[in-house]
Amino acid sequence: MYELTSKLFKKVYEYEKLSSTNETARELLRRDGVPDYFLVLANEQTQGKGRWGRGWWSPKGGFWCSLVVPKIPLPSLRAAFSVVQTIKELTPLRAGIRWPNDILVRNKKIGGILTENEKGKLVIGVGVNVNQESFSEELSNGTSLRIEFKHILPIEDFLDEFIQNFETNLKDNKILDKIRGELLLLGERVTVRVKDGLKVGEFWDIEADGGLLFREPSGIISKLTPSEVKFIR
Questions:
Q1: Alpha-carbon gap, residue 105 to 90, rounded angstroms
Q2: Which end of the chain is more exposed for a tag (fewer CB within 10 A), N or C?
Q3: For the chain, how are helix, strand and coil distributed in percent, rounded to 5?
């Protein structure tokens, strides 16, 4: 059983195995009497998911968590930034954020965020590959802290550090500038896939709501939202 020192997340629902922590959190929100802030944790997910309905391999050894909070700005980027901070604090690894919701180490995906709405609250799913020893060939672009750091990291330590960072970042009115400092590809030439095909240009900046400002070769700057962009590279 996890013992948190959290000031906000007093209620923690823990499970050995779930289909998805986000789905369980949403089910709990449909009941009466749940607190404004709570966590759902699982040692394993059988139907973990990412953006666009993509599956997320979630075996034992990973960090699988959903945070339920009232509406806040930049939920996915705020959570991703908290993961990056946690990795830096617990390991010597350099992590970064690939807009809008991926966390990368050495150009390989180590974590991701999925934010959903339910009953006027946000359900922020956080998945981080912590102690997995290997990945299948089809997941060759994935990695874990254990693979990169060469050490086993207790999930309890990751959870406690992450929650402390997330709570601090909830109150930080300069969080956007800090997020910018961890964004991969910012200021670089990128290719993005949108509904009408591929676009090549420059990752110019992000706006206060987290939208991507994309500068086309003509100099025109347009805003793209996460719901419009399937990938950026």
A1: 14
A2: N
A3: 25, 35, 40
